Amino acid sequence: MLFNKKKQKCLKEIGLRVQLGHCSNDCCLEPSPLHKEFVVLHTTGINKVDVDACNCPECQLWAGAPKEQLLHAGWFPVTDNRPRTCATTDMLNHFLAETYQSKTTLYDYYMALEKLTNNTGIKPPNRYYAFRHMVHKYAHILMLKHAGRGHADFWVEGTQQGKLAVQCICCPQPGVNLPEGWEKAGPKYQ
């Protein structure tokens, strides 16, 4: 946000354009603008920005699709096709830490983001449902990552029920922490 004594303006209104995915430091010759009302959620608030994806033939293999360019920049899109709302991975990690530690609800966290933006005099667009979807999607992907499913043969589709659960190291498991022949031991030792 830019502040002066008369009027507050968002960065989009003063001409900021974010260029994604270009493979060199010079300007992209074929920028492809994303949605005209593109919104980024960050820990500082809800921000409208102009975003261009790189569409140069020489950078296309490196840059990838717009969704991949957003992910490379640390922006997590709501949808895979034609994204128009993103949350920074910093904000998603911050929310997950807040909710695990202080039990902050998703609604309360979003309202705080809206207040951070709205207290400057700028009415932010309502992206609560998009934020909710991003948080659930991001938490699910983190759960798959922590379970080591990123490089499995069938990734998500091949994950069977219960395979993401953390194994209890105290519970007896044959072949893991029980000696061979344990079933032949007397009832006192079983």
Provide the spatial order of strands within the biggest beta sheet: 6-5-9-8
What is the overall pLDDT average?
84
Tell me the structural class. alpha/beta
Strand segment tally: 9
Poorly predicted spans: none
Write down the secondary-structure element order. EEEEEEEHHEEHHH
Q: Radius of gyration, Cα only, in angstroms?
A: 23 Å
State the helicity in percent bands: 25-40%
Q: For the record, give the distance between the C-alpha atoms at the N and C termini, rounded to a whole number.
A: 67 Å
Number of helices: 5
User: What proportion of the residues form beta strands (DSSP E)?
Assistant: 15-25%
The tally of domains stands at 1
Question: Which short descriptors sum up this protein?
Answer:
CxC2 domain-containing protein; alpha/beta; 190 residues; 4-stranded mixed sheet; CxC2_KDZ-assoc; 3-stranded mixed sheet; elongated
Description:
- By secondary structure, the protein is an alpha/beta fold.
- 32% of the residues lie in helices and 16% in strands.
- It has one domain.
- The chain is built from five helices and nine strands.
- The strands form three sheets. It has a four-stranded mixed β-sheet with strand order 6-5-9-8.
- A hairpin with a 4-residue loop joins strand 1 (2-3) and strand 2.
- The longest helix is centred in the C-terminal third of the chain and has 19 residues, at 128-146.
- It is elongated, with a radius of gyration of 23 Å.
- 20% of the residues are buried.
- It holds the Pfam family CxC2.
- This is CxC2 domain-containing protein.
